[in-house]
Amino acid sequence: MAKNVSETLLDILADAGVADIFGVTGDALNTLLEAIRTDSRFRWIGVRHEENAAYAAYAQAELSGGLGVCAGTVGPGSLHLINGLYNAKKEGAAVLAITGQVAHHQRGSNYFQEVDLSRMFDDICSYQAIVNTPDQLPRLAEIAIQKALGERSVVRLELPVDIIGGMVNNRHFLHPLVHTRSAFAPPDQELEKAAHIIQAGKRISLFCGIGCREAKSEVLQLSQKLNAPIVHTVRSKDIFDYSDINVVGMTGMIGNPGGYHAVWDCDVLIMLGTNFPYDGFIPGGIQIIQVDSVIENIGRRAPVSLGLLGTVKETLQALMPKIAANDSDKFLHHTGFYAING
Q1: Is the dihedral of CA 162, 168, 174, 179 positive or negative?
Q2: Worst-scoring range by mean pLDDT, 19-28, 107-116, 217-226, 318-327?
Q3: Closest to 211 measured CA to CA, from 333, 340, 132, 308
Q4: Which of 241, 278, 242 is nearest to 263 (CA)?
Q5: Contact predicate 204/285, CB 8 Å
Q6: Distance between CA 248 and CA 108 in Å, rounded?
Q7: Residues 302-320, mean pLDDT to the nearest whole number
Q8: What is the sign, positive or negative, of the torsion defined by CA atoms of 219, 220, 222, 228?
Q9: φ, ψ (nearest 5 deg) of residue 21
Q10: What would the pLDDT profile of 115-163 be if each residue is shown by its tens digit?
Q11: Which of 135, 278, 279, 287 is such that its CA lies 20 to 30 A from the CA of 75?
């Protein structure tokens, strides 16, 4: 059965696991709203300001690990999304912004609320799909959504008012989306280097970020094996808690003494999936091993002795058999004293 642009877009979003779309109703989005109204797979969650829609989409993407979706109509309606989308970009969340646009025959005439949205969103989006014909929609929408999911980035889909209700006659490019991200470990020789550095350490700390979301069990196992305190960032606060063994808290601008001393007093710091921004809270003159799946994060905040490119879970699974247990808990008690007594 033939479907229009909005209905086809909903099919693609459903395949991406989307159920909620946050936004403010506007004329350019009427066809999309009608498609959502008659499609039981989706909820339109209206907000009072588009900025809230973008923040809500970011939060949903961050908490679910999936795709967050927000929508704004032409001109100001779309521009109001910017603050929330910038936040999503900085935090590395997968968010799709659906924006309306004036009709093609009005472009360039200074039409009511006409804005060059491509220029306005250029610094935010890793990809912008400008749909100029209905048959472009399946391919461009899937490219955008796949990029957002694969790279944890913000993308934008622009649907002009004279296109959003058009019939899609060519569904040739529709295909099942890739939902999983690659998991990988560094080469064995790099893991051997890491094990050598760790075994030479006397005071070892683990500094854990959002990249540990799928690796909590492995982090706790490594901490127990090394008698190493666990320090975590704000973004990983929902992963690690004081009730977890060896967790001493946070460091940084809103840290606590236990977390601060665990990082500052160690001689080997193992940074796991964190892009912690406050480099003044990371000491020099120590051995630092950084594990991250994004290569540009390695060495960005600290003078790293060894960078390991890999996902935290798989890297720790491969690393732990190469490391002997550390029987001394002196440093762990040292940081634990600060965690309890401040």
Answers
A1: positive
A2: 107-116
A3: 308
A4: 278
A5: no
A6: 59
A7: 97
A8: positive
A9: -130, 125
A10: 888 999 999 999 999 999 999 999 999 999 999 999 999 999 999 999 9
A11: 135
Angle CA 173–179–184, to nearest 5:
125
DSSP state of 294: S
Q: How many structural domains does the chain have?
A: 2
pTM of the model: 0.87
Q: Is residue 303 part of a domain?
A: yes
Instruction: Give the Å distances, CA to CA, from 73 to 102, 121, 230, 277.
Output: 9, 14, 46, 35
Helices vs strands, H then E, count in the chain:
12, 14
Q: What is the CATH number of the domain that holds 36?
A: 3.40.50.970
pLDDT above 80: residue 341: no
Residue with tokens 């091993």: 289
Name the residue range of residue 251's domain: 188-341
Query: In the chain, helix, strand, coil percent, each to 5?
Result: 40, 20, 40
Give percent of the chain above pLDDT 70.
98
Within-domain flag for 180: no
Please indicate, yes or no, whether residues 137 and 225 belong to a single structural domain of this protein: no
Residues 163, 237, single domain; the answer is: no
Q: How far is Cα 231 from Cα 223, in angstroms, rounded to an integer?
A: 11
Give the pLDDT score at 73: 92
Residues 201-237: pLDDT tens digits? 999 999 999 999 999 999 999 999 999 999 999 999 9
Contact 16, 66 (CB under 8 A): yes
Is 41's pLDDT higher than 80? yes
**Is residue 7 pLDDT above 90, yes or no?**
yes
The owner of tokens 């003159």 is 285
Separation between Cα atoms, residue 14 and residue 230, nearest integer Å: 39
Task: Answer yes or no: do 224 and 281 share one domain.
Answer: yes
**Length of the chain, in residues:** 342
Token digits for 132? Answer: 């100029």
